[in-house]
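Hey, I was hoping to borrow your eyes for a little while. I've dropped the whole record in just underneath, so have a look:

——
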Amino acid sequence: MNWETIYRRKVTDAATALSCIESGNRLYVGGGAGGPARLIDELCARAPELRDVELIHILTFIDAPYIDPKYEGSFRDNSLFIGHNVRKAVQEGRADFTPIFLSEIPGLFQRKILPIDVALVSLSPPDEHGFCSYGVEVGTTKPVSYTHLTLPTSDLV
């Protein structure tokens, strides 16, 4: 079986891909300009059925709707770099900040200091050889996604 057949069998919609997320999970959210906006929107749609889900990320440039006070109890943000989109929530005590050097972040995940249950990341569609790119944010995303299942979503591909 070739890579294209295997890949197409794994493609699903965002809602199905996120159905594996459970209350109490810790999610990694891809950072920078490569944030998975469509997946975040779909996650927020599941807020009524989720409790105590932690979202951990580096600086993100996308909206962070999960920090809205209406999601308190469903989601808790833990930023490793504070950006404009989460700064107010951190200052108000509705989100957390973990100060750390960028070079130390991959070790948090690799050594399971911060074990990740699900990684929400953006990937390019596969090229003619079946390879995908993390695009603009590979530094902390690659160590997380090497140890977690990534499901391609038809919304993004």
